[in-house]
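User: I'm writing a tutorial on reading structure tokens. Could you give me a worked example: one chain, its sequence, then its tokens, then a sentence or two explaining what the tokens reveal?
Assistant: Sure. Here is the example chain.
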Amino acid sequence: MERGFKQARQDLLAALEAGNYQHAARGSIDVKNVLATGEVSVQQVIEIVRQCSGMHHCSSAHHRVAGIEVHVLRRLGWYIKFYFIEPDVWFISVHR
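And here are its predicted structure tokens:
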């Protein structure tokens, strides 16, 4: 399912607020995903996402899994990269 910015943002916020999120396994997780390490809280990520508009968003196909759309938000010096596998949002990166 392709999501435009508004739908992706709405679904991301709903998943975070419900606790429906996971972290994709990857190298350098201590640097690339500070949400996973606890350096930033879910509430802090929610506040960043709420300040995003369509100009802070881009998306592309997942490099390995056909049919999965990967979203990137860049705002306030933050880089947030994620995708959806219902019912969860999966974070690839959350970092400055």
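What the tokens reveal: The chain has one domain: 5-95. The longest helix spans residues 5-18.
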